[in-house]
Amino acid sequence: MGSFTLLGLSENPYHRLPLFSFFLCSYCLCIAGNCLISLIIVTKPKLHTPMYILLGNLSVVDVCLASVTVPRAMCGLLFGKTSISFSGCFLQLFLFHAVGNMDSFLLAIMALDRYAAICQPLHYYSIMSRRTCVCLITLSWVVVCLHSTLFTLMTFCLSLCAWVVHHFFCDMPAILMLSCRDTSAQQMVVFIEGSVIVMGPMLFILGSYILIIRTVLRLQTSSGRKRTFSTCSSHLTVVVIFYSSIIFMYFRPSCLYSPLYDRGVSVVYSVLTPMLNPIIYSLRNKEVKAAVKGIVQCGEKKRGIKLIKSSGVSDIFS
Question: G-protein coupled receptors family 1 profile domain spans which residues (predicted)?
Fold first, then answer.
């Protein structure tokens, strides 16, 4: 056989339309929000700073993360079971792990940026210069691509005795279940190597926010503390949701594997998190809000000018 069969999110036909509607709305919000952030950051020179470079990269990665899985998942909900070629399956596996882990690394670099801005404001530009930011992003891409290559090759070398994937996309735990042989060695590699790639950024983020909170507690003004705590709590909420779902998926014993639960958990970090990131990290930001407001006002002015011109022309011919 030259292809896998993806069972999709639900085999119950009555669940497909509500799930399709949910995926369509979530995907549209994700694309619209993240593309808007990217457009604003690219077109506004004053936003070409390390923090906004990171936000722009996060938006692009979130679009890629959702686009790797969601379109095919929606096809599955419309038409039932869908087929995917071996090469397409392993390409999807590679891209999903690459952009998914890049999302994690970007969140860690953003935590470093916030730490430098709040805890070391006098040394901010020496810690987070534009060059440092670009170097960290480039290094992160190299690491996640090597990680994804290892996972993909390790999966590609399996001896498979089944072709039906109990998932809505090609992911490693679901494909390991199709192996004819014992996969303890592969699972051990996933646990050890994945622990470094996933737990490293997570612990770094938590450590950074602990230091940030400690610094904020020393602030004299209660309004400053309240504003910073509000921002930190929203950031940490997204981080906890993102990492808890990943830990559940990739670091639990194989005896606890459940296709139904895995599909639900996968939706959290492949659909919901990319949709929430622009809202939490960007659209609550004052500069981004001002830029969005400026774009809206500019559009309204242009529309008003067109209306005035059109009414003027109609007056001439009346």
Answer: 33-281
